[in-house]
Design goal:
CATH class of the largest domain: Alpha Beta
Number of strands: 8
Strand content: 5-15%
Distance between the termini: 25 Å
Number of domains: 3
Bound molecules: iron/sulfur cluster
Radius of gyration: 21 Å
CATH architecture of the largest domain: 3-Layer(aba) Sandwich
Order of helices and strands: HEHEHEHEEHEEEHHHHHH
Oligomer: single chain
Number of helices: 11
CATH topology of the largest domain: Rossmann fold
């Protein structure tokens, strides 16, 4: 049985049957209590609300939806994982992301906490017969360094780019730079013990066949509600069933200006040099950000492994398509600056749909 069928059979279908009332009178139980394939509305009686804030439109929409539902912003916090770390690498992310996140949080009066894997994407990729580096987590009490358990872990070697794949094993960037960091940030802060926490992320089913199968509400993997720590954490994906139209509409209603990547024409706001970028986006990077592919091209030669599974170098891929034509010069100027200095909120009369909206073909799934 392939993995997705197994998942359907063991998680999705039982969960659906439970919601549709197909189990009464039988001894068949739902896959897991508290797991719901579809849960667009839930009781919002949590002590804390953590929003996984990538700075893309779907994480923004999730936050705005919580505000529309009346969640008290004094119980909210935003979490952002720095993909390049904070040690100086600039291999994959946009230069302005950290500043944008800070200014966004400031505009909404909600605290933001950053966390990262030391060395970021580049450091992890260069791991050679060694242990992964520590995680760093900002907390209300200051910055915390979380060391690795070198007694139990095995040293490893990467020396290649994450592979374009739905599997988090080979597409290691999402797991090593985001998911693991978030999990350790949850399990290493005693302030969550004895609390009821809602962890919110902005995936949407429309984005990929993999996301189409996600549950909308379930116990978070770090949940320990029945354990000694009484740490109750639910994971909720409030916009999972939303269309892209609904996402842009909530940004427009709240006057949140489209983040820069969409204004440039990108369909997603992920890492600038995301492994899922289409030939058109790589061509645009080569055209408008000269030299931006050099580091990646150099690593492809050094590893003798390309990002593309078809073994075509990033430079050749960038020649397979025509670049986008960028008309938004304000966004283009911002794209090369570290400090974000465009408005976060604009009057409704000035809100514009960005060039990248509804351009589904520009990027693959994250
Ligand atoms: S946005 Fe792309 S490159 Fe960045 S972590 Fe996600 S999959 Fe990896």
């Amino acid at each position: 049985m392939n993995v997705s069928h197994q998942y359907d059979d063991t998680v999705v279908i039982p969960s659906l049957k439970h919601q549709l009332g197909l189990f009464p009178g039988t001894d068949v139980k739902p896959a897991k209590a508290g797991t719901f394939f579809s849960a667009p509305e839930i009781t919002l009686d949590y002590d804390m609300y953590i929003v996984g804030f990538s700075s893309g439109k779907d994480s923004i929409a999730s936050l705005l939806h919580l505000l529309d539902l009346g969640v008290d912003r004094s119980k909210m916090e935003l979490w952002h994982h720095d993909v390049d770390g904070r040690e100086g690498s600039t291999l994959v992310d946009w230069r302005f992301t950290e500043s944008y996140c800070k200014k966004f949080a400031e505009a909404f009066g909600i605290p933001i906490y950053f966390s990262w894997l030391e060395g970021g994407f580049e450091g992890e990729m260069l791991k050679e017969n060694s242990f992964s580096k520590p995680h760093w987590v900002e907390t209300p009490d200051g910055l915390v360094k979380l060391e690795r358990d070198t007694e139990r872990a095995q040293p490893g070697t990467r020396l290649k780019f994450p592979q374009v794949s739905a599997s988090l094993q080979t597409r290691w960037c999402s797991s090593a730079l985001k998911i693991d960091v978030g999990r350790r940030a949850l399990t290493n802060q005693s302030r969550f013990n004895g609390q009821k926490v809602l962890f919110i992320t902005g995936e949407r089913r429309e984005e990929s066949p993999n996301r189409a199968k996600y549950n909308q509400l379930e116990a978070h993997v770090c949940d320990r509600r029945s354990g000694r720590l009484a740490r109750h954490i639910d994971a909720w994906r409030p916009v999972l069933e939303w269309s892209e139209e609904q996402v842009w509409d909530i940004l427009r209603r709240h006057g949140v200006s489209a983040p820069v990547p969409y204004r440039l024409g990108w369909g997603r706001s992920s890492c600038m040099k995301c492994i899922f970028n289409s030939p058109e986006i790589w061509a645009t990077l080569r055209e408008y950000f000269p030299g931006s592919l050099d580091d990646i091209a150099g690593y492809e030669r050094r590893f003798n492994t390309t990002i593309s599974r078809s073994k075509i170098s990033i430079v050749d891929i960038s020649k397979q398509a025509k670049p986008l034509v960028i008309h938004d010069h304000e966004a283009l100027l911002q794209a090369v600056k570290k400090e974000y200095d465009l408005p976060i909120i604009v009057p409704s009369s000035q809100w514009v749909m960005p060039a990248g909206a509804f351009s589904h073909g520009s990027c693959g799934p994250s």
